[in-house]
Amino acid sequence: MWAQITEEAPRFFGYWNLMFLGEALVNTLLLSWLGATIGFAFGFLFAICRHPRLFGVLPLRILATTYVELFRRIPFLVKLMCVFFAFQLSGAQVSLFTMALVTVVLSAAAFAAEIARAGLESIPAPQWDAAEAMNFGRWRVLWTIVLPQSWRVVLPPLFGYTVGFIKSTSIASQIGVMELTYAAKILNTRGFSALLCFGTILLLYFLICWPTKHVGERLERRLATRPVRQGMP
Amino acid sequence: MSYSLIYSQVTGHIPYLLAGAWLTLQLAAISFVVGWVIGLFNATILSYGPRGARWFVQGYVTFFINTPLLVQVFFIFFVLPEAGILLSPYAAVAIGMSLNAGAYLTEIQRAGFASLRRAEIDAATAMGFSLPQMVWYVIVPHIAKALYPPLANQFIIQVMTTSIAAIFAVEELTGRAYNVNSLTFRSLEVFSITAVIYIALTLVCSLALALIGRWLFRVQAKVI
């Protein structure tokens, strides 16, 4: 086994294979980071919709809550298949990458909504009352008082979830998106040993996930040491 | 856009899908229990083990948490045969998921070890408990109570991650959904029903775990 691998390694790490893997790596990064960013933006919207002080509209709150509760309970693969076939049957000319991106966005929105809700709820109610007493509109309270304080609570877990989405995008190989896992499968089918193919991408995944997680953990420590200003005593 | 959803062709297959859900639960339970044992063992090493072993365990945890489960199972399923170890798809998925869960459960349980009161450990030492005895009689009961909510949460995550077993042709819920899909070609219907079954399944699990938690430890776990 080892003899075969040492024989294959120079061919495996040849120029074209490396370009191929590089492209796949870029796709994985794009898929996860772009998907997570858009998804987190939607998640914030959901959290704002669910917040009792911001939206009095009950149907909207119920809708947002239902979405968040349900979409967190569907596995990524099943979600991906639903999105895939929904696009296919609607007849829209959409690339596989976009379909996977939509799936990441759908999941990220549901998870981020929960984090954002925790962030919004970390601001004590007296601050809202005080701001309202000073005749601030609710959107102005959100923008100038709540958001600047809540991002400390929100930001660190977002990094953790982003790592989760980097890992989830490996499932997008199932519909044929050209990302790392799919690239490894292709190289494996071309006859390279599975140890080289999957070992290499495991390492690549590790190299992009670990720093992301590390940044999140560092942020968590740094933001936690600073005292968060409490509301009016 | 001329597609109409026809559920009547799929509804007959729902019992078949639900039988797959049973296998999903089985796989989740196996990987959770094995992962829990791995996690307990690792957390013990991280708290009381020698430095070399600690580094090894830390490396295992960091590696498994920062790589996708799917690729880990691919690795087990395709690389081990090259070394002469042939695994059935079910075994490969179960091993991969257990190792993966082991890493997460190590992280969770280490926090439990850290939350132990010094006095409890001192008392156990004073009574001449060996390390395994102390872990089993003092730490595990403490962890089971204090960590019940995150452990239950991890089980729900396990239920959802079993869906990747379908990629290795294990006939659990998603795998059976693939089968029904290739029989009926009602893809969107099949997978939307599967999604609903997953939602129901995890809701039932959450509810059951919350009730068990209340009954066992009087933990006020959130039901949903």
Protein topology:
The complex is a heterodimer of chains A (233) and B (224).
Chain A: H1 2-12, H2 15-50, H3 58-71, H4 76-90, H5 96-121, H6 125-133, H7 138-168, H8 180-189, H9 194-225
Helix pairs in contact in A: 2-3, 2-5, 2-7, 2-8, 3-5, 4-5, 5-7, 6-7, 7-9, 8-9
Chain B: H1 8-11, H2 14-48, H3 51-65, H4 69-79, H5 89-114, H6 118-126, H7 131-146, H8 148-161, H9 173-184, H10 187-217
Membrane topology (chain B): Multi-pass membrane protein
Organism (chain B): Falsiroseomonas algicola
Keywords (chain B): Cell membrane, Membrane, Transmembrane, Transmembrane helix, Transport
Write a structural description.
- The complex is a heterodimer of chains A (233) and B (224).
- With 233 residues, chain A is mainly alpha-helical.
- Chain A has 9 helices and no strands.
- Chain A has helices at residues 2-12, 15-50, 58-71, 76-90, 96-121, 125-133, 138-168, 180-189, 194-225.
- Chain B has a single domain (7-216), classed as MetI-like (MetI-like fold), CATH 1.10.3720.
- Chain B contains 10 helices and no strands.
- The chains are: A mainly alpha (233), B mainly alpha (224).
- At the A-B interface, helix 4, helix 7, helix 8 and helix 9 of A face helix 3, helix 4, helix 8 and helix 10 of B.
What is the name of the CATH superfamily of chain B? MetI-like
Largest interface (CB within 8 Å) is between: A-B, 44 and 40 residues
User: What's the architecture of chain A, going by CATH?
Assistant: Orthogonal Bundle
Oligomer: heterodimer
Written as H for each helix and E for each strand, in order along the chain, the element string of chain B is HHHHHHHHHH
Q: Measure the end-to-end span of chain B.
A: 37 Å
What class do helices, strands and sheet pairing of chain B give? Answer: mainly alpha
Low-confidence region ranges of chain A: none
Distance between the termini of chain A: 69 Å
CATH topology title of chain B: MetI-like fold
What is Rg of chain A? 22 Å
* Residue windows where pLDDT falls under 50 for at least 5 positions of chain B: none
Output the structural class of chain A. mainly alpha
Subcellular location (chain A): Cell inner membrane; Cell membrane
Organism (chain A): Falsiroseomonas algicola
Keywords (chain A): Cell membrane, Membrane, Transmembrane, Transmembrane helix, Transport
Main location (chain A): membrane
